[in-house]
Amino acid sequence: MKSGWCKITLATMLLCLLASPALAAEPAIAVAAPLTGPAAAYGDNVKAGVDMKVAEVNAKGGVNGVKFKVEYFDELCDPKEAATVAPKIVRDKNIVGIVGHVCSSAHLAALPAYVRGGVVAISATATNVAISDQNKDKKGKAWSFRDVYRDDFQGKFLARYAKEALGLAKVAVFYENNDYGIGLKDAFVGEAKKIGLAVVGEEAYVKGAADFTPQLTKLKAAGPQGIFLSGYYPEGALIATQAKKVGLDVLKFGADGFDNADYIKLAGPAAEGTYLSTPFIASEAGPEAKAFVDAFKAKYNRDVDYMSANAYDAAGILIQAVAKVGADRAKVRDYMAAMNTPEKGYKGITGLTYFDEHGDAQKPAFVKMVKDGAFVTAPKQLK
Fold first, then answer.
1. Tally of CA atoms within 13 A in the half-sphere of 155 that contains its CB
2. From CA 30, how far away is CA 289, in angstroms rounded?
């Protein structure tokens, strides 16, 4: 009798082992982000989201009893640094996937290494349109995914919001001369022309610039009612401050690159009244997000930003894939590519995420604004 039970127990254990996907001894998720430098606040947001998800999963025993690690790679939101760290990520065989990169230029620079090395990346923040067509291997398989909307959607949305919600008739555009700033600007200007929103001036600036007075003076002469700042918050804060000094005291609005509390800290009173688009606002999220929002605020003593929320879900998607198919990189990619319908999508705190053949997700946009020194939900939202 005892011998029989032993045989049954051993057989049961063997079946369980065969049914469970094999995992590496220490499966890891790579976070490729700016962890130092001017854009470090972005990296901190993504890091916070991934850390919370991994800690949550590990606290419940991990996946099939195996806990996850997180490996961090600092790329400064810089294309050259991203191209340098990408091969290091590929060579680490314990890494099952990447949450990153944050900036579109960095993501585009790293993509060739990920495609060649066969490791999947999911960005919570990179919105440039070119990513959709540059992430495929010779067989047409996408190795890059994102749980954030694209710039063509966001730029068009902002043009509509400027006219329909803000009531503007004439706007100026001040954009950063990089993949993110140009892509967003092009989509905005194209849609503005279609809907009869006059773009009375366009000026460019470069990352790291400190004096924007010449361009702002030219834009002021065009007489805009508002100015679209197409770039990231570090330069955006300086632009807002200097616009006030030159008398360009008009309504300011930007995109998700401004969605960071440091914009308000750096710009001070000049940030007041700035509008920006974002993929996630806690007040607009469903009840399933409340626990995350409360836990995030308790842990980090700040309100949830969209980057943290999207990164939390991005890590969740990778972990779910590993739980279903194991740590084989190709199988993880194939599982994510098969998340191509609402029924197969991932139900996260930012809503439902599923992908098209380019690895792009369809997500709505919301608008927040700076009021009394803090981000609040804008009173008008476009449906």
1. 26
2. 24
